[in-house]
C-alpha cells in the first residue's frame, strides 16, 4: 500500500487517522532507545531498533524506514563507528522514497554540522532528547516527506498524462500521414501536355497537410481550365476546404462548377464568374472565418489566348521568349471576405517560347533569417537564373532555392503552376552533311 500524506498532528493529541511513518532508532544505549521508542509509539509511529551500523543497514534494506534517528558515535566490531558512516551509506543505498536522517549528539560545533550536512544529514537533536524536541523535529521531517510524496504523486500523474499524450499524438500523426496521402491524391495529374502547351504542378505542404491546391481540367477540345488556390491558415480546417474545392474543380462535368453550362448558357463559366460563384458560396453556405486566394485561368492551347482572374493571389509572372520578365495583375480581393468583391481580370496571348509562373505566397513570402521576404523580385530572379530549365526540373530547382533562402525554416505551404508554350524544335545541320 502506498503511504498517504497526512497532516502532522500536534504533539499533545495525535490524530487518529494520521499515516504511520516508520522510524529506525540506531543507538548502542538500550535505555535511550527504550525512552525514544516510547515517545514514538505514543505519537503513533512504527518503530524499528538497531544497536549497530551493520544491523541498521540491514533493516534499511529490508524495511526502508521513512525516518532514521541515529547516535553520532556507535561502537562496532572495528572500534567506534560513526553515525556519519551510517548516514553516507543510507544516502547511497537504493530507495523508492526519500528518507529523513536525524543525528543525535551531545555537543555540536560548526565543523560537526558541516561534516554532517556533507554526509547527508537533514537535522540534529541534542541529547538527552526531550519528547517535545523529538516531536518538533519529526514534524519538520514529516513536512519534507509529505512534499516528496506529493511531488512523486504529481510526477507519476505527469508521466501518465505524457504517456497518454504521446499515444494520442502518435494516433494523430498516423491520421495526418494518411490525410497527407489523400490530399496529395487530390492532384491527380502533376503534369499535362495539350498541343504546344505544357503544364507542370508543384504542391508541397509545410506540415502533414496544407491549404494549397493546384490543378487543371479540359474544357472542350481546345481549352483547359487551370487553378491555384491558397486557403488561409494551416492544418485540418484548411485541408478540409481544399478537399471541398477540389470536388468543385474536378474533371467531372456534373460536379465541376466551371463546366456547368446552365449558369451562363455557354460551355464553361468565365474566370470572373467562377470567382464570384465561389465568393457567394463562402459567404452564404459556409459558417467559417476562413477565406482563400485564387487564380483561375482559361487557356486556349490552340491560339495561346489566356483569360485569367486574380483574387488576392500573388502576381503571376510572365517570362517571354526573349527572356524579359514581368508580373501581371493588380491583385484583386480574396474570396470569402467581401460581399461585393473586385477581382482582377487579365488577358494575354502566350507565344511560342513564353512561360507563365503562378506561385502561392508560401514562395513569395518566404523569409530569410533576417526577416526579408523573397518577394516578386526574388521570383523574377529565380526565373532568370533558371531560364534554361523547364517543367518539373524548374519547379524543383525553384523549391530548392526557396528552401535555401529561408534556411529550411519554411512556415507556409508551397505550390506553383508552370505554363509553358513550347517553341517548335529547330533543325540543326550536322557538320559534313
UniProtKB/TrEMBL annotation:
* UniProt enzyme class: hydrolase
Coiled-coil regions in this chain?
148-182
Kindly list the residue ranges recorded as spanning the membrane.
Answer: none
GO molecular function, a single term: protein serine/threonine phosphatase activity
Sorted keywords for this record are: Coiled coil, Hydrolase, Phosphoprotein
Q: Output the SUPFAM superfamilies linked to this UniProt entry.
A: CheY-like, PP2C-like
The chain residues annotated with the modification 4-aspartylphosphate are 71
* EC number from the UniProt entry: 3.1.3.16
Instruction: Enumerate the spans annotated as Response regulatory domain.
Output: 22-142
* Stored InterPro entries: Bact_Sigma-Reg, CheY-like_superfamily, PPM-type-like_dom_sf, PPM-type_phosphatase-like_dom, Sig_transdc_resp-reg_receiver
Q: Does the keyword Glycoprotein apply?
A: no
What is the protein name stated in its UniProt record?
A: PP2C family protein-serine/threonine phosphatase
The species this protein belongs to is Paracoccus angustae
